[in-house]
Amino acid sequence: MNVLLLLRDLAYHGGVPQSFLTLAQFRDPARLRMQVGAFRECQPEMVEALGNFGTPVHHLSGRGCLRPALAVRSLLREQHIDAVVCASFKSYLTAKLATCARKQRCLFWIASVPEVIAGPVRRAIYRTLARQDALIFISQAVRKAHAYPQHRGLEQVVYYGITDPYEHREHEPYPRQARMEILGLPPTAFVLGFIAEFIAWKDHPTLISAFAKVADAFPEAVLLLIGTGAQRGELEALARNLACHDRIHFLGPRPDARRLLGLLDAYVHPSRGEGFGLAVVEAMLAGVPVIVSNDGAFPEYVKDHHTGLVVGGGDTDGLARALRELMTQPELARQLAAAGRVHCLKHFSPVRFASEMTAVLERVIAVRPPHHDPQT
Q: Are residues 39 and 112 both part of a single domain?
């Protein structure tokens, strides 16, 4: 079985590209061969990483859908592709054009709760084209957002698989004693972290405001914000107006972001409508207690006071209370961290993920469309 995975950007730290890499690494090569196509420039480190696992990458340039569709169509013929897995609306439209009157099946891998299919026109196009196609959702929350009654194709939730950082040297969390060397922070600091793009629905303002509410009572507390994005300047201005501004650090994008988790006392992710929350699971696997909002996919794996703390979305006071709880109850923090790691090791195995994805593809490919013109 030879499959082409299509997406818009092949960014090294993106959730979907990382899942492509996980699939490439943990698939059974006897059952699944895969190739990746992207419409924008591919990051060299991602191309190299996929290549290390026998997965070639194709840069499919061109505006709109028609020219990329012609490039995909040629690729399908030359590489003897059996199915196309699409991870964005553009890639799905492109694949539908490319596979018209051909044998290849299209699968739409939907990875976001906020409307992937934004607006009535796109939604109508999606619901018409996808009626018989397989839909793969990364969580029950995503399925709830994008499933529709008229759909007659396969629907499957397949949770991401995430590697155990303690078994992979490149992801192994930094030891706590390296805080001063790496971040210039004393060992007595209580370090909070959040890894996310600076965009509206990640809701950085709620975290910054909650931190300001506890900063006076906990003078050794520090907040690290890791990432980049359009709202960074606005958020830096918000932080500068606070008395605790010197304890809020914008670290920018960090290639070692996953390793930095080992330097944290708690990981906080206040996003609204997260489709999965890859960084949260990475923190839990690193043995860090987490605080999340009760929105999106988080309630599917973060159980309040069992595998983490859960607060209302946008609830600044509730988030401040949760921060105080972890800061004043170290035993609770240890219990949450231990339970969270065990839960994620059990439910988000990369081997399980690769096996489930392969089984879905095999099931879809086994059902051929009724018409096929090999010369088209």
A: yes
Residue 132 and residue 206 in one domain: no
Whether 130 and 146 share a structural domain: yes
Residue 302: CATH number of its domain: 3.40.50.2000
Instruction: With cut-offs at 50, 70 and 90, classify the pLDDT of residue 246.
Output: very high
Distance CA 233, CA 229 (A): 9
CA atoms within a 13 Å half-sphere pointing along the CA-CB vector of 371: 4
Q: Are residues 295 and 270 in the same domain?
A: yes
Q: Which residues pair with 252 in a beta bridge?
A: 226
Domain housing 19: 2-161+350-365
CA-CA-CA-CA dihedral for 343, 191, 293, 144, to nearest 10: -50
| pLDDT, average across residues 49-58 | 94
Instruction: Return the DSSP state at 128.
Output: H
Q: How many CA atoms does the CB half-sphere of 200 hold within 13 Å?
A: 1
Considering the chain, what is the average pLDDT of its residues?
A: 92
Report pLDDT digits (tens) over 285-312: 999 999 999 999 999 999 999 999 999 9
